[in-house]
What we know:
Number of domains: 1
CATH architecture: Orthogonal Bundle
Radius of gyration: 13 Å
Number of helices: 3
CATH topology: Helix Hairpins
Number of strands: 0
Mean pLDDT: 92
Low-confidence stretches: none
CATH class: Mainly Alpha
Shape: elongated
Amino acid sequence: MSKLSLKASDLRKMKREELLKLLEDQRLQLLKLSSEKAAKGTLDKPGTMRVVRKNIARILTLLGEQK
């Protein structure tokens, strides 16, 4: 795993508020990457978008488990 990806075991140790903040940060990062891709036509590291999307999915899954 790259340094960008978040492990589920690390995320499980976080509080709900921390997860929500991290989710917001990841969504902002995805938005920036999307706009960069639209402007340039390509990204320096194309796999970054995939990692960020998977991080968002992990966070949402854990938030669902906590309910």
